[in-house]
Write a structure and sequence with these properties.
Helix content is 45%, strand content 15%. The protein is an alpha/beta fold. It has a single domain, classed as Rossmann fold (3-Layer(aba) Sandwich), CATH 3.40.50. This is SDR family oxidoreductase.
Length: 248
């Protein structure tokens, strides 16, 4: 049987690139999406056309009910979970903290933080030897924003990713003896559509001169780091971080 990987927010960007690479390396892939049904289903067809197995599962990771249903559906369609990639995340329009209202903060924290915790909880119920599982791996997609702070743009998003960094460290220690490794990647300026949702599609182009490697990264470059952390090659790595940021 193939190993099973669930990737949240996988219809585009880093999530989609990770799904394609995972399928290429023999994983059966659960492709979670919230609104982008056509993109998720097209990704499933692309994987199947190459001989892989994949299923698209609609769920809002900020909803506990949706998360529980998503994992049950994954159990029924692909089987026992081996790897969770907590990739789903949102940011909102660039602005200073003095202009942010509580609704915005709640939306950002609900998806980026609460969603990651809920998915990790359900994954552990399936992976942890404490619950009769055979072990597994959780990879959180954080951001270099957690270290840089994103002033004048997304301090709320940066703070949410800071919470993910702390979660990674604490959870890794909590479940290390139960056969589960927990790590994170911190992408920097990556060429994805998320910048458009923040109101500046050309953000990578504007900021790339501040990156030591002199360019924005590609989703596939982040995906390769995620797949390494998921693999047996990273068997002695937990509570760790890979910065995929061009040196920024």
């Amino acid at each position: 049987m193939d190993k099973v990987m669930l990737i949240t927010g996988a219809s585009r960007g880093i999530g989609a690139a990770t799904a394609l690479l995972a399928a290429e390396r023999g994983y059966a892939v659960g492709i979670n999406y919230r609104n982008q049904r056509e993109a998720a289903e097209a990704l499933v067809r692309q994987i199947e056309s190459r001989g892989g197995r994949a299923v698209a599962i609609a769920a809002d990771v900020a909803s506990e009910e949706d998360v529980v249903r998503m994992f049950r559906e994954l159990d029924q369609t692909l089987g026992r979970l081996d790897v969770l990639v907590n990739n789903a995340g949102i940011l909102e329009t660039q602005m200073r903290v003095e202009n942010m209202d509580a609704d915005r903060l709640q939306r950002v924290l609900a998806v980026n933080v609460t969603g990651s915790f809920l998915c990790a909880r359900e994954a552990l119920k399936r992976m942890s030897t404490r619950h009769g599982g055979k072990g597994g791996s959780i990879i959180n997609v954080s951001s270099m924003a957690s270290r840089l702070g994103s002033p004048n743009e997304y301090v709320d998003y940066a703070a949410a990713k800071g919470a993910i960094d702390s979660m990674t460290i604490g959870l890794a220690k909590e479940v290390a003896a139960e056969g589960v490794r927990v790590n994170a990647v911190r992408p920097g300026l990556i060429n994805t559509e998320i910048h458009a949702s923040g109101g500046e599609p050309g953000r990578v182009e504007r900021l790339k001169s501040g990156v030591p490697l002199g360019r924005g990264g590609e989703p596939e470059e982040v995906a390769r780091a995620i797949l390494w952390l998921a693999s047996d090659e990273a068997s002695y790595t937990t509570g760790g971080f890979i910065d995929v940021s061009g040196g920024r």
